[in-house]
Write a structure and sequence with these properties.
The structure holds three protein chains of three kinds. Helices cover 65% and strands 0% of the residues of chain B. By secondary structure, chain B is an all-alpha fold. Chain B is globular. Chain C is of the alpha+beta class. Chain C folds into two domains: 230 residues, P-loop containing nucleotide triphosphate hydrolases (Rossmann fold, 3-Layer(aba) Sandwich), CATH 3.40.50; 117 residues, OB fold (Dihydrolipoamide Acetyltransferase, E2P) (Beta Barrel), CATH 2.40.50. Chain C is 26% helix and 35% strand. Chain C has a six-stranded mixed β-sheet with strand order 6-7-8-3-9-10, sandwiched between helices. In chain C, helix 5 links the parallel strand 7 and strand 8. In chain C, helix 3 packs across helix 4. The two termini of chain C are 37 Å apart. In chain C, 41% of the residues are buried. The chains are: A mainly alpha, B mainly alpha, C alpha+beta.
């Protein structure tokens, strides 16, 4: 608090502050944001919750005259093997390529970066970040080329004749996604590492702890909130990722990479089932919400202490 | 301080005299343990770096080699691929992306600055709830909104319009921008605004003349993030705007891949580079301006 | 034998030399305090002892063995950091037992020893708490406890009391001395506070701008400072340093000081023999300047104006302006003086310290 505000606060005790009037400018200036958010977020969300239980279609009779169908879509979803496979793929993709791979690689780069030569750190850091800044479509086709027959990855792994994207689609898109996303973790975790008090690490050194022991028992525990937030953000970002996989495989071959967002698109805009597509989207949101709740519970002790 | 800004450079590891002011965490770079660790670590990091570099190397080689394949091309220098990319519509597509990203950024930034300022400075009933709501919206998967928005746009005939599409793009960036700007403005002392108010400036004047210059770094960060986000937009334009002349870069590239029978990697790589260059330049400029870093949850004291 | 020695130790960072050519010996069981103003290199020296910095030149020995290339964890030293460096995610008990658990000592022994140390330091009731819930003084004791439990060859303490309030500091000074008496482990303690140094040390090493100024027990540092810096740093209120000139009166050197002429005899006289017109600085401790008694007694005296009176209860600090200089004097409590009054003060020339103005070194 600055001297000025302190003076104001002294003159106007807390009670009076709370009874401030609502200014005209407040409403005026909140209006554009509210209009956008209400119109393009809240209303669609509400509408989606309705649409998910209808038989709306893209074309045909039920495009105009669609009706509420109760739990029909839900029942369809429960009995839809592609849906469940999609859920599984989504979780594998998010956890494997996102949480595990990106966190480990990002952490490794952050830790290495702490001790590496300046030039090495700066240049490797730039390259990794460059992969992140590249538009997603570019990442998609680069790795598409990489994993084709004759592509660099195929050659390097000794399968120069096979189209890796067809034989191991989920793996390839996961690698592509990790390549693209690691920079985020690297930066977030670097910042988190910097916030670990050096004295705590030095104290542990004096107690005889080796590097790995210090990493596991001092550094990572102190970084726990940063790690959790990082994983939360990775999860939210990856779970709704459409472009990369769609551009590379369109969900195929034969639904092998159809994570939920891709499956939703296919059902909605290729099979015309807009209503059912919305149901899938709602399921996706539910899964995201559950995962978020999980992370937030992990963060609760720290949040409580910060208060 | 929870300033969230663009990914900046990694911290500097230059040797510097010890900073022993009380309460400084990790003010020094990790040094000290005797041994050749630095070399080993640097080598490992360099190896990882090269693994990351490989796809980018392919990209550049393929763009410059008129006979590019899916494998690594031999170094050459030819602009044929770029010409082919332009013939395939790269110029138009990039112009469209510029429009989409530009409009969405302007809209989102203006809207978020106003809202962020209000949420930071003014009394707002149920402010806490609103802020939680904003944070919640930040994490919402856009895929949920796609179909309902599409349906609404069909009804009110807003489909196939670059303008309305960019509104949607802007809207998707607004929650995060509001949160970012609000936090940024929180850190700025109110003295300047109060001084201006005492001098008789009106609300809006204060905002424009006093506040905006002060928070310019935050505004720029928000704008740049929104721009980069909207530039690469794929799904939303794909669904909301199917006019052939309106295709933005990402969709254009996708169509290029799927259109021809055999993928022409050379022109494709060129198209990709053309499409990526603006964003890369933007990132470089901004990270030089604002050397910041992500600093979430530095809140655990010890 | 846990002796510590620094031999010709120098530490430079890019372009800046933090520690220059330090030779220091700490005997087994001795409490050595390195003291000096901010930036004098004392913390860097300590960190070289701990192993967090490597000397650019010179050797660090602990227990007789050269430790330059030995990592901190193998040096068998314990350190108490300025900010305590407690692991924030662990309870007090887990913090205390951290080292022993790393070394895989038997659980029963760990519990027993942790409890014993906690009792001794008065923190037994805090074992289940986390550092964030403790006060500064309590965290301090946990840090101490952790160091004690290490049972090291040597203790290193980096300004451990500087974050505590004055009352707590005084109490902790007492406790630290008590603990050292009970566990006479070789200790190197760094501080910028000369009061801590004077009250706690067996030996003091005074540093300034990277160089050792003097190493001596507290009393000798006070009464026989090796240069003007040492004289000025040690002692509160600060010693009065007055510019003067050495003149020749026939065969005898005479110091001309504030309109007084002080003839110089004996050893000091022979040192000053060869000087004529040289500038020197005279050091007079505040307690060495006293009001003149009625009737002269042969001591040099000045007349001055009382500028400031600071009564402390047990004594009074009076600032007296003599010519262009202000002398701070320590007078008995009820001096009956008033600001603006004229006063005559005198001093014993045997007690004065003479420093060469150019080099700062003490001449006598």
């Amino acid at each position: 608090m600055t001297a000025l505000t302190r003076r104001h606060a002294a003159v106007a005790p807390a009670g009076i502050r709370e009874r401030q009037r609502l200014k005209a400018s407040t409403l005026a200036w909140l209006t554009p944001a509210s209009a956008l958010l209400i119109g393009l977020f809240l209303v669609p969300i509400g509408y989606a919750i309705y649409l998910g239980f209808t038989n709306l279609e893209l074309l045909g009779p039920t495009a105009q005259n669609y009706s509420f169908t109760g739990l029909a879509n839900v029942r369809r979803m429960i009995h839809d093997p592609v849906f469940w496979s999609s859920v599984k793929l989504t979780l594998i993709f998010v956890v494997g390529s996102g949480i595990i791979a990106q966190t480990i690689l990002g952490l490794a780069l952050a830790l290495l970066g702490q001790r590496a030569h300046v030039t090495v750190r700066a240049s490797v850091g730039s390259v990794v970040v460059l992969a992140w800044v590249l538009p997603e479509i570019a990442v998609a086709f680069i790795w598409y080329a990489f994993s084709q027959a004759g592509g660099t990855l195929s050659v390097l792994t000794g399968h120069s004749n096979s189209d890796l994207l067809s034989t191991a689609p989920l793996l390839i898109v996961s690698v592509a996604n990790t390549w693209r996303g690691t920079a985020f973790s690297m930066l977030v975790l670097s910042a988190g590492l910097r916030n670990v008090p050096q004295e705590a690490d030095e104290a542990a050194q004096l107690e005889g702890a080796s590097y790995w022991k210090r990493l596991l028992r001092v550094t990572l525990p102190i970084m726990r909130p940063t790690l959790m937030i990082n994983m939360l953000l990775i999860t939210l970002g990856t779970i709704s990722d459409f472009t990369l996989i769609f551009a590379m495989t369109q969900g195929g071959p034969g639904n092998q990479t159809a994570i939920l967002p891709v499956y939703m698109y296919i059902e909605a805009f290729q099979f015309n089932a807009l209503g059912y597509g919305t149901t899938i989207a709602l399921a996706l949101m539910l899964i995201g919400a559950l995962l978020s709740v999980f992370y937030i519970r992990q963060l609760r002790p720290e949040l409580r202490r910060a208060r | 301080m929870t300033s969230t800004s663009l990914p900046g450079q990694l911290p500097d590891a230059t040797d510097s005299p010890v900073d022993t002011r009380p309460g400084r965490p990790a003010a020094r770079r990790v040094r000290g343990e005797p041994g050749g660790h630095k070399i080993i670590v640097s080598v490992i990091m360099a190896v990882l770096g090269m693994a990351f570099l490989l796809p980018l190397v392919w990209l550049i080689l393929a763009a410059l080699n008129p006979h590019a394949t899916s494998g690594l091309s031999s170094p050459a220098f030819s602009l044929d691929n770029f010409r082919a990319a332009f013939q395939a519509g790269a110029g138009r597509a990039i112009a469209n992306s510029l429009y989409l990203a530009g409009v969405s950024t302007v809209v989102a930034t203006v809207v978020s600055t106003l809202a962020g300022y209000v949420l930071s400075r003014h009394y707002v009933p149920l402010k806490g709830l609103l802020l939680v709501g904003v944070i919640f919206l930040t994490g919402l998967p856009v895929t949920l909104l796609l179909i309902p928005i599409y349906q609404i746009f069909v009804k009110i005939n807003w489909l196939n319009s670059p303008f309305y599409t960019s509104l949607v793009l802007g809207a998707t960036s607004v929650p995060f921008a509001i949160w970012l700007l609000k936090n940024f403005i929180d850190q700025v002392p109110r003295d300047f605004e109060e001084a201006a108010a005492v001098e008789g400036s009106g609300q809006f004047q204060i905002l424009l003349r006093v506040v905006v210059p002060l928070i310019m770094p935050g505004i720029l960060v928000s704008a740049i993030l929104t721009f980069i986000n909207s530039w690469g937009a794929f799904l939303i334009p794909l669904v909301l705007d199917s006019s052939p002349g309106d295709t933005p870069g990402a969709v254009g590239i996708y169509e290029f891949i799927t259109a021809n029978g055999q993928v022409q990697f050379g022109p494709l790589a060129a198209y990709g580079i053309l499409f990526s260059v603006p964003v890369i330049i933007m990132y470089i400029i901004s990270s030089r301006w604002l050397s910041g870093s992500f600093s979430f949850a530095g809140g655990v004291k010890g | 034998m846990a002796t510590i020695s620094l031999e010709g130790v120098t530490k430079s960072f890019k372009g800046k030399t933090a520690v220059q050519d330090v030779d220091l010996e700490v005997a087994d069981g001795q409490f050595m305090i390195i003291v000096g103003p901010s930036g004098c290199g004392k913390t860097t020296t300590l960190r070289m002892l701990a192993g967090f910095e490597k000397p650019t030149q010179g050797q660090v020995r602990i227990g007789g063995k050269v430790m330059n290339d030995v990592p901190p964890k193998d040096r068998d030293v314990a350190m108490v950091f300025q900010n305590y460096a407690l692991l924030p995610h662990l309870t007090v008990e887990k913090n205390l037992s951290f080292g022993m658990r790393i070394r895989r000592e038997p659980r029963k022994a760990i519990e027993r020893e942790v409890r014993a140390v906690a009792e001794m330091l008065g923190i037994a009731s805090l074992l289940g708490r986390k550092p964030a819930e403790l006060s500064g003084g309590e965290r301090q004791r946990v840090a101490l406890g952790r160091a004690l439990l290490r049972k090291p060859q040597a203790f290193l303490l980096d300004e451990p009391l500087s974050n505590l309030d004055a009352a707590l500091r005084a109490q902790m000074r007492f406790e630290l001395k008590r603990i050292h008496a009970q566990f006479p482990v070789t200790t190197v303690y760094v501080t910028h506070d000369q009061v801590e140094a004077m009250t706690m040390a067996d030996q003091i090493a005074l540093m300034n701008e990277g160089r050792l100024q003097q190493v001596a027990p507290p009393e000798r540092l006070y009464s026989e400072p090796s240069n003007a810096f040492v004289a000025g740093f040690i002692g509160s209120p600060k010693i009065n340093l007055v510019p003067a000139t050495v003149l020749r009166d026939g065969e005898q050197p005479v110091i001309s000081l504030l309109s007084c002429r002080v003839p110089v005899n004996g050893d000091l006289g022979s040192v000053l023999q060869r000087m004529d017109g040289d500038a020197v600085t005279i050091g007079l401790r505040p307690e060495e300047i006293q009001p003149c008694p009625a009737g002269s007694n042969g001591r040099p005296a000045f007349q001055g104006l009382v500028e400031l009176i600071e009564p402390l209860g047990s004594e009074t600090h009076v600032s007296v302006r003599v010519g262009e200089e202000i002398l701070i004097c320590r007078f008995p409590p009820r001096s009956g003086l008033e600001t603006g009054a004229t006063i005559n003060v005198q001093f014993d020339p045997q007690q004065m310290k003479v420093f060469d103005t150019a080099s700062g070194l003490r001449l006598g």
